[in-house]
């Protein structure tokens, strides 16, 4: 996910509001380097399990998953634990329809590169789209206003193509324990600012925002060793299952 790349920019931006001394800037910079070393870099691609998940009645529901490594399922132990697979099977169970899953999400995606995923999706429009994006915008120097505006444009494109769109807003990066304090608080504040702006942009574009950070961060904090993968940044299969349980209801509501 490119964690902490450009985090000094985030620290300076927040410090411009709250007051960031030279000593604090130096501390945050050093902590960013240390956390990057502790977390490391993910080199393996997520599993893929796109295809038809069979139900019993009605037309096939075309379900697309777009976004970054969290949408792609980086950290899941196997294909059965990917968020797209968990949600596709949940949709089959809840709606009774067969579901065709297509995953456009890519590790490292930002809201700028997300545009190419939407280009692919609208060429064969889904009935339902899940978007998880924003974490890399926090660590990649993108202004909150710019990030949210770009997301709103792409959600509107998906809606115009006929898709119901559910967006999981920026997760709570403050749950990542290898990031030391006070840097963790900086990352958390930046992510919350983005999630709030994303919510407004998604609503204006006709999508359904889900504040995933608010809904699951406490559980991830309490069960850190159980819900995170070995890289200590991305969820493992159990973590994705917990998040998918939260996302299934708004996805079902969006297509009823």
UniProtKB/TrEMBL annotation:
InterPro entries: SGNH_hydro, SGNH_hydro_sf. Residues 65-241 form the SGNH hydrolase-type esterase domain. The keyword Membrane applies. It comes from the Bacteria. Keywords: Membrane, Transmembrane, Transmembrane helix. The chain crosses the membrane at residues 6-28. CDD domains: FeeA_FeeB_like. This is Lipolytic enzyme, G-D-S-L.
């Amino acid at each position: 996910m490119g964690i902490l790349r450009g985090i000094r920019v985030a620290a300076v931006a927040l410090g411009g509001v709250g007051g960031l001394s030279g000593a604090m800037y130096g501390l945050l910079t050093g902590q960013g380097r240390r956390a990057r070393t502790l977390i490391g870099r993910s080199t393996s691609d997520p599993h893929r399990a796109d295809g038809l998940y069979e139900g019993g009645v009605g037309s096939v529901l075309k379900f697309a998953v777009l976004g970054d490594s969290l949408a792609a399922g980086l950290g899941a132990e196997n294909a059965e634990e990917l968020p797209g697979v968990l949600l596709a099977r949940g949709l089959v169970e809840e709606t009774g329809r067969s579901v065709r899953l297509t995953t456009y999400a890519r590790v490292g995606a930002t809201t700028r590169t997300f545009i190419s995923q939407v280009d692919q999706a609208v060429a064969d429009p889904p009935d339902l789209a899940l978007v998880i994006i924003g974490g890399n915008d926090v660590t990649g120097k993108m202004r909150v206003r710019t990030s949210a505006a770009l997301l709103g444009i792409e959600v509107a494109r998906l809606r115009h193509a006929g898709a119901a769109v559910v967006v999981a807003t920026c997760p709570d990066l403050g749950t990542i324990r290898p990031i030391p304090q006070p840097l963790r608080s900086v990352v958390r504040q930046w992510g919350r600012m983005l999630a709030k702006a994303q919510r407004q942009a998604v609503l204006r574009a006709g999508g359904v925002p889900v504040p995933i950070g608010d809904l699951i961060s406490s559980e991830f904090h309490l069960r850190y060793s159980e819900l995170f993968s070995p890289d200590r940044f991305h969820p493992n299969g159990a973590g994705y299952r917990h998040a998918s349980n939260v996302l299934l209801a708004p996805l079902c509501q969006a297509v009823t």
